[in-house]
Amino acid sequence: MLKTTVIATAIALGALAAAPPAHAQSKKELVTKVLQLQQTGIDNVGRALAGQTSQRVLQAAGQALPRLAADKREAVAKDVQDDVKKFYDDVEPILRKRANELAPATLGPIYEERFTEDELKQIIGWLESPVSKKFQQADGEIASSLAQKVVADTRPTIETRLKALEATLAKRLGLPPAGAAATPKK
After folding, report:
1. Residue whose C-alpha is closest to residue 143's, from 55, 44, 37, 50
2. Hey, how many other C-beta atoms are within 10 angstroms of the C-beta on 27?
3. Which of these, 128, 139, 148, lies nearest to 35 by C-alpha position?
4. What per-residue confidence (pLDDT) applies to 82?
């Protein structure tokens, strides 16, 4: 009797183990979930691109400030900061939105290629495991890949706005517009 119960239990457990879960997630669904969990990181790609561009502009303007009369520097510096903040506030949502639009097509295939379904499940659970470390190592390259796509895709829009900002700053700083030949002072 005991032998029959053990065999019946083993058969039942085997059947349960072989049966698929009520709702097995496909690899694409798992990748979608990983992308949802990476939302902050994707948003940060857009923010970082806007911040880096704004920072470069501020540095260039900062180098030109000493050329101004001392009594005008503080006011012009404040205006430059305001202009750059306005530029950042203008382009950051564009870059963040585009990063989110490009992420599924850019990152999804990379996740699908590099990770198995089981690994994606472990990432979703965010366990401290070798798989998690593998994901973190790949994450920098993946983010760089998205950043490159966002830059390429938004270049015309951002460059137009960047040129407008540079022209405004050049005017504020008393510099010739970009591309204009320097005219000697009389």
Report:
1. 44
2. 13
3. 139
4. 95
CA 125 to CA 31: how far, in whole Å? 13
Euclidean distance between CA atoms 68 and 80, whole angstroms: 13
Residue whose structure tokens are 């039942």: 12
Most confident of 24-28, 163-167, 171-175: 163-167
DSSP annotation string for 85-102? HHHHHHHHHHHHHHHHHH
CB 150 within 8 A of CB 46: yes
> Which range, 12-16, 114-118, 161-165, has the best average confidence (pLDDT)?
114-118
Pick the closest to residue 102 from 147, 160, 68 (CA basis).
Answer: 147
Task: Give the residue, 125 or 109, on which the prediction is more confident.
Answer: 109
**What's the pLDDT score for residue 129?**
59
Question: Maximum Cα–Cα distance for the chain, whole Å?
Answer: 113
Q: Give the N- to C-terminal CA distance of the chain in Å, as an integer.
A: 113
Evaluated on CA atoms 154, 156, 161, 166, the torsion sign reads positive
